Amino acid sequence: MLASPLTLLRRLPPTVRVLIAGALVNRLGGFIGPYLAIVLRREFHLSPYQLGLLLTCYGAGSLVSILVGGVVADRLGRRLALLVSLLGGGALACAMGFAPSIRVFIPLLVLFGFVADLYRPAASSIIGDLLPPAQRAVGFAGLRTAINLGFAVGMAVGGVLADWSWRAMFIGDGVTTILYGLIVYFFVPETRPAASEAPERPPLARNESALALELGGLSGPPRPPASGFSPWRDPVCLQLALASFAFALAFHTNVTALPLTITVTAGYPAPVYGCLVGLNGLLIVLFEMSATDALRRFRRLRVAALGMLFVGVGYGITGFVMHWAWFLLTVVLWTAGEILSAPQKLAFIADWAPAESRGRYLSLIQATWSLATAVNPIVFLPLYARLGERAFWPLVALVTLPGCLLLLHLDRAADRPEKLRGLLVTS
């Protein structure tokens, strides 16, 4: 029998529960991202070219923000990264709400892009710091559940605010973000392991050498201590990042090509698309934590590979039948894939990363989603226009196949207790 999400939340440490509650508060007011393009076009009368350029700059800022956030979380502390991002981002959001002109608004928006996502690696690192390995996937699932629940409600409220007053929408986003920052300030302690407290790995020279050969014939001097590990020089992390990018690249099609298929090719009104894609968040809220807990006895990267296969099948069959019931089936399939895959990959990288480098490792994996968000429309929309429904969607499915194979390879080569450097809870 599946445990309920509330039961699973009660099993988590108080700090993790507070962190998850704060994430829910923050996402309840997450209005800016979904409605930014509408505000820029309707209120500031930007041309399509200007709009695209500004959104690209905003997206690039988000990507850099996530990567820098991992460094800040490891070098200066999880708590500092959270406070700078949440209090700074909230203040900038409120300032945009009072901006008197587009000349003032645009610099604030670009700066907001570089600050707003600094907190994401730090929040994930706290879960890795405080939870034992057996609970980490459930902890990540809990954080994702709060984000999806908050996003679903925030989308509805944000739509009302966007039509009533875009300034109130930005101020509301800023206030909820600052409230999350205050929750962190008063209730979330620092969890970053000090250099002297980082757990030492037992000698694994033979295993590490074998792993290096399995992962590309790497050889050379002994590896540096944990504090010297970089995800950019770690073949396991880079391969997981590649798999995560392939997953996100295919997954992001739900906001680029899928709305065109449902509203243009199939001829349904926009609310039908909104309800179908909104089901994704609802299913995550209802089932992700419970499913993740129930699957603990299975090897996690195999579960993640199965999830990626579900995503491929879900998108691959999208263009064959132009009926809402068929689209509903595809949404259920790729949502099941997300539920199976996302928390397992984060739990693995939290276990693989040395404790002192956990923020940087997690930030690299999380940054693949931002990169895919930027790459997908540039690559996939022209292919969609050229290939048509029947040929395009199977191509999206093929994108997920290398990721499945990489996850199965990492399951064999890296996901073994003697090779995982972050198994111990350090705080």
Walkthrough of the structure:
With 427 residues, this protein is mostly helical. 75% of the residues lie in helices and 0% in strands. The chain is built from 17 helices and no strands. The protein has helices spanning 5-10, 14-28, 32-42, 48-75, 78-97, 102-115, 119-130, 133-164, 166-187, 205-214, 235-251, 258-265, 270-294, 300-316, 324-352, 358-387, 389-413. Helix 2 (14-28) runs parallel beside helix 8, helix 8 crosses helix 15 and helix 16 (358-387) packs antiparallel against helix 17 (389-413). The longest helix has 32 residues, at 133-164. It is globular, with a radius of gyration of 21 Å. The two termini are 32 Å apart. Mean pLDDT is 87; it is low at 196-227.
The helix fraction, in percent, is over 70%
The count of β-strands is 0
SS strand fraction: under 5%
User: H/E order of the elements?
Assistant: HHHHHHHHHHHHHHHHH
Radius of gyration, whole Å: 21 Å
- Low-confidence stretches are 196-227
Class from secondary-structure proportions: mainly alpha
What does the overall shape look like?
globular
Whole-number mean pLDDT: 87
Instruction: Please give the largest β-sheet.
Output: none
In whole angstroms, how far apart are the ends? Answer: 32 Å
Tell me the number of helical segments per DSSP (H or I, 4 or more residues long): 17
